[in-house]
Design a protein that fits this description.
mainly beta; five-stranded antiparallel sheet; three-stranded antiparallel sheet; 8 strands
Length: about 110
């Protein structure tokens, strides 16, 4: 199991990150355990875009007040500087793959 996220230590979110630098971005596998579905998520806001694909399970993504329910094979694009949250929306682990489009030295 990957190490617990240092960004969200109070949740059962686990991340494995591959950083290829500013021009190529960051690739990340994330696992949200089912317990996160009852945990109020914290809002994210950053100056880079994210593209995510759900591999297993169900994920709830809130983009600035609009909620999307994603399942296996569903993808989502999150614009830079857009408030958002993500959490498990099911009873099994939710695994997802992300690409973070880093355009500056913000990460």
């Amino acid at each position: 199991r990957p190490p617990r996220s240092t960004l969200f230590p109070y949740t059962t979110l686990f991340r494995s990150r591959l950083d290829f630098g500013k021009k190529r971005g960051i690739y990340e596998f994330s696992t949200y355990d089912p317990e996160t579905k009852d945990t109020p998520p914290s809002w994210g806001l950053h100056p880079y875009a994210e593209v995510g694909v759900v591999l297993e399970g169900k994920m709830e993504v809130n983009l600035d007040g609009t909620v999307y329910l994603l399942g296996p094979g569903d993808s989502i694009y999150i614009k830079p500087n857009l408030y958002h949250t993500m959490r498990n929306a099911g009873d099994t682990p939710c695994r997802s793959f992300w690409h973070l489009q880093i355009m500056d030295d913000s990460v």
